[in-house]
């Protein structure tokens, strides 16, 4: 018996990029949280994550959840890699749960 495989939608990655990175201090500070400075080479951990999800056949346009304090860093680092993404801004950091919910709601509305 053969099964017909239905075409699947590409995965839309959700990247949470909000907190201040206090567990990585002193390398990370509130002005420059852990996801933005390069730690293991020329790219930041945020940019490394973006590169991992940039395969168009598998991944769709990423959704980035960040805070208004980090919006310009996010935009600059996206532009440096030539990657387009949907950027959602939380008014303030509220931990992972609300960031995940915001991303899920955005994906549902975009479908």
Give the arrangement of secondary structure elements:
Layout: E1 14-17, H1 45-52, E2 63-67, H2 71-81, E3 86-90, H3 96-110
Parallel strand pairs: 1-2, 2-3
Helix pairs in contact: 1-2
GO biological process, one term: GDP-mannose biosynthetic process
Protein name: Nucleotidyl transferase domain-containing protein
InterPro entries: Mannose-6P_isomerase_type2, NTP_transferase_dom, Nucleotide-diphossugar_trans
Distance between the termini: 33 Å
Low-confidence stretches: none
CATH topology term: Spore Coat Polysaccharide Biosynthesis Protein SpsA, Chain A
User: Helicity range of the residues?
Assistant: 25-40%
The biggest beta sheet reads: 3 strands, parallel
- Average of per-residue pLDDT values: 84
Q: What would CATH call the class?
A: Alpha Beta
Strands side by side in the biggest sheet: 1-2-3
Number of domains: 1
| Radius of gyration over C-alpha positions, nearest whole angstrom | 16 Å
- Which term fits the overall shape? globular
Beta strand %: 5-15%
Structural class: alpha/beta
The appropriate CATH architecture is Alpha-Beta Complex
Q: What's the tally of helices?
A: 3
| Oligomer status | single chain
> How many β-strands, per DSSP?
3
Sequence of secondary-structure elements: EHEHEH
Annotated CATH homologous superfamily? Spore Coat Polysaccharide Biosynthesis Protein SpsA, Chain A
GO biological process, one term: GDP-mannose biosynthetic process
Pfam families: NTP_transferase
GO molecular function: mannose-1-phosphate guanylyltransferase (GTP) activity
Domain Nucleotidyl transferase: 13-106
């Amino acid at each position: 018996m053969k099964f017909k495989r239905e075409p699947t939608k590409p995965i839309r990655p959700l990247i949470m990029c909000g907190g201040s990175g206090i567990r990585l201090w002193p390398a990370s500070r509130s002005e420059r949280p852990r996801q933005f400075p390069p730690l293991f080479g020329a790219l930041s951990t945020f940019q490394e994550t973006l590169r991992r999800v940039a395969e168009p056949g598998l991944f769709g346009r990423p959704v980035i959840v960040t805070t208004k304090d980090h919006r310009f860093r996010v935009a600059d680092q996206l532009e440096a890699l030539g990657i387009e993404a949907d950027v959602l801004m939380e008014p303030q950091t509220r931990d992972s749960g609300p960031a995940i919910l915001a991303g899920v709601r955005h994906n549902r509305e975009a479908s």
